Amino acid sequence: MWRRLPPLLALLCAAATACGHDDRGDADKHDRGDADKAFCTWTCVIFTLQWPGGFCQSLDNASLCHIPEHVGTWIIHGLWPMKVQECCRCWPMFLSDVQELREALDERWPSLLKSRSSFHFWRDEWEKHGTCAACVEGLNSPLRYFQTCLKLRQHFDLHKALEGGGIRPSCDRTYKLAEVQDVLFPLIGGKCEIQCVKDDQEREVWFQVKILLSRNLTIGCHGHDADRAPIASKGHPCPARGTFYFLPIDHRCPLQPCG
User: Fold this and answer.
1) Residue 20: is its pLDDT beyond 70?
2) Which pLDDT belongs to residue 17?
3) Of 21, 30, 66, 77, which one is the catalytic site residue?
4) In the annotation, is 125 catalytic?
5) Is 21 in the active site?
6) Alpha-carbon distances of 179 from 115, 167, 182, 212, 253, rounded to whole Å
7) Closest by alpha carbon to 249, among 240, 241, 258?
8) Catalytic: which of 107, 125, 163, 202?
């Protein structure tokens, strides 16, 4: 089912190589060569969803945080093939590539940073991760990559699952990892990571879920990547012992939603 390097990507990369102009230095050229060799060697991919109510706690400079008024549920952070990044820097993305998805992306994949527009967020995700996913049919263009991410977001409806299990944002109630995992297991399986960050009061705050998928985007992965360290990001696994907060969203004061 899976195809080799898409013709368009192959042509773009060949053209970039033929141009022969690169002012990034020999070290960067070596890094790029390593990335090119790694293209499409991945077997597992991580689909990451973020909770806006906990996102601000992950920032070194919390004043940069901004939650748009229309954002009120889990949003997409990215779809990341494991162990590879920036596989083809010669495949740029333009707003016109995803114009037909603009409304849906603004709703389900907004930037929560004042310093970065949503388009720049999408473009960064495409250049860093999407170009590595592009060797798989259904992900082999910016449009298809983002369409697939939106479909995954629709399928993995964390809000519905959590509501059904009685797990709701709260300033007072805390949750145990096991009870969250039990509620989410029917939806995302056991191959996932519930991630927390610490707020300014040193409390554990839930802010992200990483869902491990196989190359064909089914739950779980048994390839060699599955046993390797996941892609690094802000946060850490929520404590197996103890509890953590699932904070509500406050658009006016996103850093301190509980006052």
Assistant:
1) no
2) 32
3) 77
4) yes
5) no
6) 36, 9, 5, 19, 29
7) 258
8) 125
Specify the long-range contacts of residues 183-187, CB closer than 8 Å, at least 24 apart: 184/158, 184/209, 186/161, 187/156, 187/157, 187/158, 187/161
Decide: pTM greater than 0.70.
yes
Question: Average model confidence (pLDDT) for the chain?
Answer: 84
The pLDDT value given to residue 5: 37
111 residue type, one letter: S
Answer yes or no: 77 catalytic: yes
- How many Cβ atoms are within 10 Å of 201's Cβ, its own excluded? 9
Secondary structure element (H or E) that encloses residue 193, with its range? strand 192-198
Q: CA 181 → CA 76, 77, 158, 193, distances in Å?
A: 19, 20, 12, 9
The 8-class DSSP code of residue 139 comes to: S
Say which residues have a Cβ less than 8 Å from residue 119's Cβ, sequence separation at least 6.
95
pLDDT classification of 225: cutoffs 50, 70, 90? low
Which one is catalytic: 30, 69, 120, 129?
129
Q: What is the DSSP string of 195-241?
A: EEEE-TT--EEEEEEEEEEETTS-B---SGGGGSPPPP-S-EEPPSS
Q: Which residues contact 38 (CB under 8 A, 6 or more apart)?
A: 83, 84, 87, 132
Work out the percent of the chain whose per-residue pLDDT is above 70.
80
